Amino acid sequence: MNSITSNNEKLSPWPWQVNQQQLSFDLTNLASQLKDLSRACYLVNDSDKGLGISQSADIATQGDAKSDALPVAAYAPALGTQSLGDDNFRRVHGVKYAYYAGAMANGISSEELVIALGKAGILCSFGAAGLIPSRVEAAIKRIQGELPNGPYAFNLIHSPSEPALERGSVELFLKHGVHTVEASAFLGLTPQIVYYRAAGLSRNPNGSINVANKVIAKVSRTEVATHFMKPAPAKMLQALVDDGSITKEQMELAQLVPMADDITAEADSGGHTDNRPFVTLLPTILALKEEIQAQYQYETPLRVGAGGGVGTPDAALAAFNMGAAYIVTGSINQACVEAGASEHTRKLLATTEMADVTMAPAADMFEMGVKLQVVKRGTLFPMRANKLYEIYTRYDSIEAIPADEREKLEKQVFRSSLDDIWAGTVAHFNERDPKQIERAEGNPKRKMALIFRWYLGLSSRWSNSGEPGREMDYQIWAGPALGAFNQWAKGSYLDDYKARNAVDLAKHLMYGAAYLNRVNLLTAQGIKLPTQVQRWTPNERMA
User: Fold this and answer.
1) Within 13 Å and on the Cβ side, how many CA atoms surround 518?
2) Full-model pTM
3) Nearest-5° Cα angle at 460, 456 to 466
4) What is the DSSP pairing of strand 41-46 with strand 16-19?
5) Is 228 helix (H, G, I), strand (E, B) or coil?
6) Cα distance between residue 190 and residue 167, in whole Å
7) Which residue in 36, 262, 327, 497 is a FRET match for 84, CA 20 to 30 A apart?
8) CA 81/CA 152 separation, integer angstroms
9) Contact 330, 336 (CB under 8 A)
10) Grouped pLDDT means (10 residues each) for the chain, 543 residues
């Protein structure tokens, strides 16, 4: 029999009682009423019937206790998803939940993903990184056509080897009125991100500052977080004034607001990551936020959210309990039907476990030795990519690679001669960023890097398009949160990758976190709930 703990008589009782006709001692009713987060719940303990629940109670005045009524032993108010996270995040971005789906490059966070979530009042960032400008522009037009009033965001990734691409993205966003960007992989501030932020600043009629261009910065280091929490540097702003990009007034206003509205503490995530532990990174960034907010006294306080490792309702609630203003998901969305990933990839992702991920060289920061987190089961990409970086660090040119080593590369990895690959690389960058080829002329090491980046760049596209015959070369970004999600969803309808919809997943995480919050509140009052109702399980689609 489930009952209140033996210490219950020592607890101060609530000043309520419940008529037995209003109580249910049935486990099914207990579960359904606990899940009705829009109404309060009152629990009682009967020595014969065990744990009972009601959604209403009466005030119990001294000497007026009804003979057929039982005293309330535990109480949980009506606290749904609105109780989780920062109200300002919901207000500023015009969304229902303190939640957003982070960008996955090369259009994995597709138009379909952004639109589906946006129509449900949930923010999603389009994966613009790695795409040519014409492709990004087409996405902007389609998303704005479907979501004229939002919410939506576009990813702006730092491109240290392709600054022209970063600048081109900013110009596209400003041209088409994209008012929210998710800045990722930045090592510091660049003129491009400062230009985007400052170009959207103006004075309201009442004298307050209108911040039209919102920035959500994904960071995993305090030094990078500091740059985004502080105002833009005057020197960088002055250069933008000098070249006519922004006005003097915008420069003045930019020194009064932070570079970002929201800072996402990105822990052990898929793709670009520093593999930071969630429980140490978030408190550190939150403490930094308090320090900088105290220093600058921003009218609208900085917000810090959490991403990387959020794949279950438990993880979501942990983030909120630690002080996150919002949560961010990534890896779990890639397996959804709306994601821009092939069926082969989505099927593989749905069976990925926590230990099935590893680190491999990143295409966009290959020469810097930067790595990203990918799936290792069912693909040879991590092994082959790491081999390429090993060869790059060992030799100074393609010509210096031993003949037998080069032959293996051409047959097993590139499936073509390196000369032909170079010709294709030249054609690619002439469309994307011709300066890349200019920089490689007379620089054999640079030429080798671009050839190797051909494989690293295409491998993710093969995964997205489902390139036949290249399955062992698919580069699939994912973090351990996906494995946690798959374990949580095992045995439910979400086990089937074809049944995974991004809106459904978002609601399960948010409602599940709110439900677990209720369970924890009741447990703290001495109630021992039946095992069957202690967890949030995805037994059915969320309405």
Assistant:
1) 31
2) 0.91
3) 135
4) unpaired
5) helix
6) 10
7) 497
8) 20
9) no
10) 40 80 93 95 92 93 69 94 95 97 95 98 96 94 97 93 86 98 95 97 95 97 97 98 97 98 95 89 98 96 96 97 97 96 96 95 88 94 96 95 95 94 86 79 91 93 95 95 96 95 97 97 94 91 79
Residue 153's H or E segment, with its range, is: strand 153-157
Angle between helices 234-242 and 191-198 (to 10 degrees): 80
Give φ, ψ of 378 to 5 degrees: 85, 10
Closest CA to 356 of 371, 376, 372: 376
Tally the C-alpha atoms within 13 A of residue 13's C-alpha that lie toward its C-beta. 17
Q: For the chain, how far is it from start to end, CA to CA, in angstroms?
A: 33
| Proportion of the chain in helix, strand, coil states, percent, rounded to 5 | 45, 15, 40
Asked if 287 and 281 touch (Cβ cutoff 8 Å), the reply is no
Tokens linked to 51? 């744990």
CB contact at 8 A, 382 and 374: yes
Task: Answer whether 475's CB lies under 8 Å from 374's CB.
Answer: yes
Distance CA 366, CA 355 (A): 24
- Cβ-contact 384, 474 below 8 angstroms: no
- How many Cβ atoms sit within 10 Å of the Cβ of residue 32? 13
Q: What token pair was written down for 353?
A: 């476990």
Cα 375 to Cα 364: distance, rounded to the nearest angstrom: 18
Q: What's the half-sphere exposure (Cβ side, CA atoms, 13 Å) at 515?
A: 23
Alpha helices in 322-417 (DSSP H): 331-334, 343-349, 381-394, 403-408
**Is residue 440 within 8 Å of residue 452, measured between CB atoms?**
no
* Closest alpha carbon to 320 in 516, 492, 84: 84
Q: What angle, rounded to 10 degrees, do the helices at 111-119 and 502-524 form?
A: 50
Q: At 149, phi and psi to the nearest 5? A: -110, 15
Q: Give CA angle at 263 (260, 268), nearest 5°.
A: 145
Rounded to whole angstroms, how far apart are CA atoms 508 and 541?
8
